[in-house]
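I am still getting used to backbone structure tokens and would like to learn alongside you. To get us started, please write out a protein record for me. Once you have written the record down, we can walk along the chain together.
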Amino acid sequence: MAASGNQLLPAAGAYEIDQAASTVRFDTRAMFGLLPVRGTFAIGHGRITVADPADESSVHVVIEAGSFESGNQQRDNHVRSSDYLDVARHPEIGFRSQRLERSSTDATLYGELTVCGVTQPIAVPLGTVTHEGKRMTASGTTTIDRYAFGITKAKGMTGRHLKITLEVVAHR
């Protein structure tokens, strides 16, 4: 993993993602782009493996699809239904990294995201990665197109693109 600035990298090894301390937030728009919709998903489990060299590091995370929460129970239930996430058939959203690319100023994690049984490549530009002892925190933001995963219900009424912001805490 890349560290921010000139900080040393976290120690090599496996870090288990702390589900309670980590967040997956989303931002999108509804009603033809007029209304903001924000919410969260819960991480089910995950692991970050820091390698030496760091470019060989990997991430695997599982998000509980049924944990979708936007603060509106009717909308949340609808998004969990077969019209959108179909959590009865697809209870998990998965991400598995394939490579980490670093430069002197930034890092991007490339991998595959699986939603509703459809797998698509995504890139997650990393924000900060910090560590203290056996604890590591990392942030990243990406945008996904729900149509790429076959989730096309209510075009116009429901936002097509979701900005995903990750704040991950992991421990060795």
In short: The CA atoms of residues 64 and 92 lie 5 Å apart. Strands lie at 13-17, 23-30, 35-50, 58-69, 92-102, 107-115, 118-132, 135-145, 161-171.
